[in-house]
Amino acid sequence: MRVLLTGHQGYLGTVMAPVLTAAGHEVVGLDSGLFADCVLGPRPADPPGRQVDLRDVTAEHVAGVDAVIHLAALSNDPLGALAPDLTYDINHHASVRLARLAREAGVRRFLYASTCSVYGAAGGDDLVAEDAPLRPVTPYAESKVRVEDDLHALSDGDFSPVYMRNATAFGYSPRLRADIVLNNLVGHALLSGEVLVLSDGTPWRPLVHAVDIARAFAAALSAPREAVHDRAFNIGSETNNVTVAEIAEQVAEAVSGARVVITGETGADPRSYRVDFSRFRAAVPGFDCEWTVKQGALELADAYRKHGLTREGFERRFTRLAHLRAASEAGAVDETLRWRR
Ligand SMILES: NC(=O)c1ccc[n+]([C@@H]2O[C@H](COP(=O)([O-])OP(=O)(O)OC[C@H]3O[C@@H](n4cnc5c(N)ncnc54)[C@H](O)[C@@H]3O)[C@@H](O)[C@H]2O)c1
């Protein structure tokens, strides 16, 4: 298939592009490149792509495409809280516009990168499956719910949206993010000797390796239409349903000499959900996630040491919000995160 991959220069997109290519697909990227230079280690070989803002996509960008994988977004809660209107403009309105254009162009499958954050304040220890009530607690998660609803309205006999509700990702990507929990805790442990948890450690936070997300998208791309059409899937594995305190313990084991410090200063995080991942395994027989949290912590510690993660990189270049603030202060992007040049 000829696949349009939006967000191909992000953390997940950089890992996903080679997985799709290896599966035999022709990948074309689309990204505004906000983090294109935020690289740890050798610069990745990106697939052919266009530097386009999602808000400016036209019919030309989806012409001749068989499937769209839509990752491009302002991708976390702090970014959403900083500028809720911008989050809705990019994550919601521009995403739905892209989907409409894709449908008009005859694109048959649209894999949407949603999130388990849609369950938000699910609370409790029960497993939440895809039909659980959605209780988003941030503009970011709310934007994902709105897109799922609007894509559902667009689905028909020829256009199949699929809602991939990913757990929180971890693992090395050349376009690293240090602002997601495992990547963050390993980096802090290496740089300071402390596995620093600011919450009280009790929230459930299901995790999934970036490579397993990429494999799941590749599997959903080639699954029979009736298995995935207009369906939501939690992407991850029950093994990696862990509390933040458990994640911290795994990190302390992976980074020798590091000790866990739970300050509790931000209190109990309302975002807590423990997830049932069985629907996707049933829909796509043979698929399962391969990476454990412990393996990911070891992989990250190795990559950080090998590529020389610095405190500047950890706090600025690989932290999405800090990087965008710096780009804005330097005048490189305007207040709507468009390039000024
Ligand atoms: N990383 C996770 O833990 C996780 C978990 C669940 C869902 N997701 C979703 O997966 C997707 C990818 O996440 P990620 O971790 O790779 O994030 P990321 O921030 O690393 O990548 C997002 C990409 O989108 C691009 N982008 C942002 N605004 C754009 C715009 N207006 N026009 C064009 N491109 C734009 C950025 O340049 C970037 O390359 C997002 O939709 C995110 O919500 C991520």
From TrEMBL:
InterPro entries xrefs:
Epimerase_deHydtase, Lipid_A_modif_metabolic_enz, NAD(P)-bd_dom_sf
Q: Which residues form the NAD-dependent epimerase/dehydratase domain?
A: 3-236
Q: Name one Pfam family in it.
A: Epimerase
Write the signal peptide boundaries: none
Q: Domain of life here?
A: Bacteria
Q: What is this protein called?
A: Putative epimerase/dehydratase
This protein's species is Streptomyces sparsogenes DSM 40356
